[in-house]
Structures are given as structure tokens and as C-alpha cells.
Specification:
single chain, about 220 residues, alpha/beta, Rossmann fold, two-stranded antiparallel ribbon, 6 helices, about 25% strand, globular
């Protein structure tokens, strides 16, 4: 069985979607550790309620971001993960961490990458006047929110949208495309060639999700 380590900072809604996918046997994997940089992260309680080991590591105990990342990387290595999943993890990973798990880290971002990278992507989309935005699952590289994209979902922006309403509309697709991408990766169907990602036997050319969802 494949093994996941999930990093969180907040409410853990994407974590819950992944847990649900595992418990419903859509994803043949286990989560051996949920790690957070925030003691009050609600996702830690979600993990505990599902019998998953959790750790809170306080960044303030470390003199540098690199020192923190080297420490948590050593903890994560003990879990022997097949994939590291960033689910609302609000820290920029250091080069040292990415080097330790190169090609094995994925993230979900609430925009159609390369648009609106970094924090508050939904607010950025509203302020720019975009009519379509969405979410992307991508591999993590040393360039922020710029790694090769696995799957994207397009979401309309409505005239009356606020940051909150747009975020909720995007989130409903996040909860579907993230488990799907994880399943594809763990099944060995994802091939990366430079910036291009191909999912073997996936159906391409579909809207609003490309490639098309299969299980979620």
C-alpha cells in the first residue's frame, strides 16, 4: 500500500477530501502522518479523529526557514512516503526540503497556474477582473506555484462574487481534482517530460476539468 504524508496549516478541507477518498477505497493508500506548522490547525483534529498520527512543529523554535525544513524533512523521511501532499500548507518550502523529496511533492493552488501565483489568488483574480479562474494540482519545484501542472479545473467569476464566495466555488473543485491527481500518481499513470505532464489513458480536452475526472 502506498504511503502519504500531508502538510497542513489550516482547516484541513482538502485533507478531509483525501481521507474520504482513502476510506471509500477510491485511493489505495494510507496517510502515515499529518504535520502542521500551526498548533491550532483544525486539520490536526480531523486527522486525529480518523486515527492518523499528527505532529505540530513550531517554526519559532528554529533560527531559519532552512533549519525548520531540514528538521521536518528528517521526520518525514522516517515515514518513507511515496508522496508528500501540501494541503493548505502556508509556508514556502526551502530548496533543502525540495531537494530531499524531488519529484515527490504535490500542491493545490486556487488559480489556473501560471495566473495569480502566491497568496490570496482568489482576491488577485477579483481585483484583476478575471471572468474565469480555477484551481491547479501541480508538482512542487523551487519556483513558487510554478511546477508542472497535472490537472486543472476552470471556475467562472460572477459579478457579485466576493473573495469568500469565489473561494468556496473553487474549493468544491479542489476537493475533486486533488484526490484524483493523487490517485493517478500513486497508480503510476503520471509521466513528467520537462514542464509537460501526461496522465496515461486520461481523457483530455474536457471542460471544466482537464483532463477529465474519472473517480471524483
Amino acid at each position: 500500500m502506498k504511503n502519504l504524508v500531508v502538510l497542513i496549516s489550516g482547516r484541513g478541507s482538502n485533507l478531509k477530501a483525501i481521507i474520504n477518498a482513502i476510506e471509500s477505497r477510491k485511493i489505495n493508500a494510507k496517510i502515515s502522518l499529518v504535520l502542521s506548522n500551526k498548533k491550532e490547525a483544525k486539520g490536526l483534529e480531523i486527522a486525529k479523529n480518523h486515527g492518523i498520527k499528527t505532529k505540530f512543529i513550531d517554526p519559532s523554535f528554529f533560527s531559519s526557514r532552512e533549519g525548520y525544513d531540514i528538521y521536518i524533512a528528517e521526520l518525514i523521511k522516517k515515514e518513507k512516503p511515496d508522496l508528500i501532499v501540501l494541503a493548505g500548507y502556508m509556508r514556502i518550502l526551502s530548496d533543502e526540503f525540495i531537494d530531499a523529496f524531488e519529484g515527490k511533492i504535490v500542491n493545490i493552488h486556487p488559480s489556473l497556474i501560471p495566473a495569480f501565483q502566491g497568496k490570496n489568488a482568489q482576491k488577485q483574480a477579483l481585483e484583476f477582473g478575471s471572468l474565469i479562474t480555477g484551481c491547479s494540482v501541480h508538482f512542487v519545484t523551487k519556483d513558487l506555484d510554478s511546477g508542472p501542472v497535472i490537472i486543472q479545473a476552470a471556475v467562472p467569476v460572477l459579478p457579485e462574487d466576493t473573495e469568500e464566495t469565489l473561494s468556496e466555488r473553487i474549493l468544491s473543485y479542489e476537493h475533486r481534482i486533488y484526490p484524483q491527481a493523487i490517485k493517478w500518481i500513486l497508480e503510476g499513470r503520471v509521466k513528467v517530460e520537462g514542464r509537460k505532464v501526461i496522465v496515461k489513458d486520461a481523457k483530455y480536452g474536457t471542460i471544466p476539468v482537464n483532463p477529465s475526472l474519472e473517480d471524483f
